[in-house]
Amino acid sequence: MPNLLTMNNLENDKIMNLLKRAEQFEKGEKASLDGAVVNLFFEPSTRTKMSFEMAEHRLGLSVLPFETAFSSILKGETLYDTVKTMEAIGVKAVIIRHEEEEYYQQLAGCKVAVINGGDGSGQHPTQSLLDLYTIHQEFGRIDGIHVTIVGDIAHSRVAKSNAAALKQLGAKVSFVCPEEWSGDYDTTDDLDALIGETDVVMMLRVQHERHAVSALFSKERYHIEFGLTEARERKMKKDAIIMHPAPINRGVEIADSLVECQRSRIFKQMENGVFVRMAVLEYAMKGRE
Ligand code: NCD
After folding, report:
1. Does 67 lie in the same domain as 140?
2. Can you point out the beta strands (E) in the chain?
3. pTM over 0.90
4. CA neighbor of 42 nearest in space, from 92, 4, 85, 79
């Protein structure tokens, strides 16, 4: 069965087919899938896990509960053996979030479909697809749209998944961050220079759990230099939108007052996540594209 592990090798027509299918689900189309799935989340998650669960329920799938804290992982069982166990008991797809980058390489021999719900600082393909869906919904296209990704680029799987996919689909992508967080990207630290010419301002959460940020910045200083402040929002283009994958550090990446402002699509992104994940589950379980 097809896996969804990274955005790096997903062709444009596959991406657009998934977005089209998500749109059909948003418009009320129903689908019914047979089988059981398990969400294996080894890192904390609210949105991704819950929206996968919602998507699974809407598709009529059996969702087997799995809590890492009560599993044999605590007895030292490997991820591979855990996934093989799911396969043996008849599970058709596993959705995995794991702190290890490319954890999925060790699962190459498994027959069960694997959907990546985030691998360390690696990739987060369903977040990228829901972001692409949200941008397409807003502007009717992705080609030619200027997206500025702001924040912890080097450690963000959201930035990496989106950077590749957006460029491949013809968007202009700019990166703004402190030099220390540039990773392999060509970045600037001057958000003010770009804020007035960008269509999408995509803010990222500072990944405190993946590095020590406090030595580099106080929250206040980060907000002043790299945050979306009210003053910056006023300089945005008339129809430009604000995105953030959440969870949000209010007052750090983005001013509290902007989280639900008229330009913000942050909660719309979450809503869209359910439709996109329905499309991805269908693709993984039925081979439908
Ligand atoms: C993101 C993640 O976990 O990578 N959140 C999400 O899935 N919506 C972003 C983040 O944690 O910063």
Report:
1. no
2. 36-41, 62-64, 91-98, 113-119, 146-150, 172-176, 200-203, 241-243
3. yes
4. 79
Looking at the domain assignment, is residue 279 inside a domain? yes
The reply to whether 146 and 257 lie within a common domain is yes
- Could you tell me if the CB of 121 is within 6 A of ligand 1? no
104-122 residue pLDDT tens: 999 998 999 999 999 999 9
User: Could you identify the atom of ligand 1 that is nearest to the CA of residue 117?
Assistant: 7
- Decide: 158 in ligand 1 pocket, CB within 6 A: yes
| Domain identity same for 62 and 15 | yes
75 is in an annotated binding site: yes
Q: Do the domain assignments include residue 154?
A: yes
Same-domain pairing of 252 and 196: yes
Number of domains in the chain: 2
pLDDT at site 289: 47
CA gap 282, 119 in Å, rounded? 22
User: Does residue 91 lie within any of the structural domains?
Assistant: yes
What is the separation, in whole angstroms, between the first and last Cα of the chain?
12
- Structural domain includes residue 1: no
**Token pair for 66:** 């799995």
Q: What is the mean pLDDT of residues 153-169?
A: 95
pLDDT in tens, 184-235: 999 999 999 999 999 999 999 988 777 766 667 788 999 999 999 999 999 9
Q: Is 160 annotated as a binding residue?
A: no
The finding on whether 21 has its CB within 6 A of some atom of ligand 1 is: no
d(CA 223, CA 206): 11
> Domain of 194?
125-266
CATH number at residue 231: 3.40.50.1370
Q: Do residue 66 and residue 197 come from a single domain?
A: no
- How far does the centroid of ligand 1 lie from the alpha carbon of residue 156, in Å? 8
CA 36 / ligand 1 centre spacing (Å): 25
Q: Is 247 annotated as a binding residue?
A: yes
